[in-house]
Design goal:
Shape: extended
CATH topology of the largest domain: Rossmann fold
Strand order of the largest sheet: 2-1-3-4
Structural class: alpha+beta
CATH architecture of the largest domain: 3-Layer(aba) Sandwich
Distance between the termini: 52 Å
Largest sheet: 4 strands, antiparallel
CATH class of the largest domain: Alpha Beta
Number of domains: 3
Strand content: 5-15%
């Protein structure tokens, strides 16, 4: 009976082995743009930042249509430019090629007069900052998300880059402070003030104050939103039956 039960799993085991084989075929492939590989003569520092595309041909591996056909462009060092065009014309592709996510099929990309292939891939990417069309944030503090770009950056540098990105005012106005401890303190302070206002209007509510403020940080944040965004009628209902807020 035990043998029969084991035999019934054989088809599933075979399917799993076949699927795993396909996965390993992909993971075992060696990338031609491996950032971990270095050579002695690679350039690691971009000194000026002059960029030039010379007769560049490129198409994505999964497509047959060329994105660039003998494409030429020159960007002087320290210039701010805007690439404007319809969807699919190659604006994001320029960034992908500068970050060396792909090889070109023809022509040259030069940085400070040197072919981009002469630069160390890892070092080159560390010196380029870009924001994707659909940014992804990890479920951590804003400071932690900023640090993914440079793990050893101190608080002063984190604040500086937020200012450069015109994001500091937005961050501070939404009490999503760069320092998690300061943000939690701010939430508790604001929530305490909101509860005190309600207690003055509805004295019976004071018995729930300590219990509400002892909740987890996530719940405190939620409570603050409830208190600040609810209308007067909703708050009157909450005050008459505070148990509805005891999460």
């Amino acid at each position: 009976m035990g043998c029969g039960s084991a035999m019934s799993n054989v088809p599933s085991v075979n399917k799993a082995k076949q699927s795993a084989g396909k996965i390993f075929e992909i993971t075992d492939q060696r990338s031609t743009l491996d950032v971990r590989r270095t050579t002695a003569n690679e350039i690691k520092e971009v000194k000026e930042g002059r960029i030039e595309f010379k007769d560049v041909d490129f198409k994505y591996p999964s497509r047959t249509t060329k994105i660039f056909n003998q494409f030429n462009m020159e960007i002087p060092a320290n210039y701010k430019i805007a690439l404007v065009g319809h969807s699919g014309c190659g604006k994001s592709t320029i960034t992908n090629l500068l970050l060396r996510f792909y090889h070109t099929q023809g022509g040259q990309i030069l940085i400070d007069g040197e072919p981009i292939e002469n630069y160390n891939v890892g070092s080159l990417r560390e010196q380029i900052g870009f924001v994707q069309q659909e940014p992804i944030l990890f479920n951590r503090s804003i400071k932690d998300n900023v640090l993914y770009g440079k793990l050893d950056a101190d608080n002063a540098k984190v604040r500086k880059v937020c200012e450069m990105a015109n994001a500091l005012t937005f961050i501070e106005s939404n009490i999503e402070d760069l320092d998690k401890e300061k943000r939690i303190h701010k939430i508790k302070e604001d929530l305490t003030n909101e509860i005190d206002v309600i207690c003055k209007k509805y004295p019976s509510f004071i018995q729930f104050k300590e219990k509400l403020l002892s909740k987890s940080n996530e719940v405190l944040d939620l409570l603050l939103q409830v208190f600040t965004k609810s209308d007067a009628k909703a708050m009157e209902i909450f005050s008459k039956d505070p148990r509805s807020l005891v999460l």
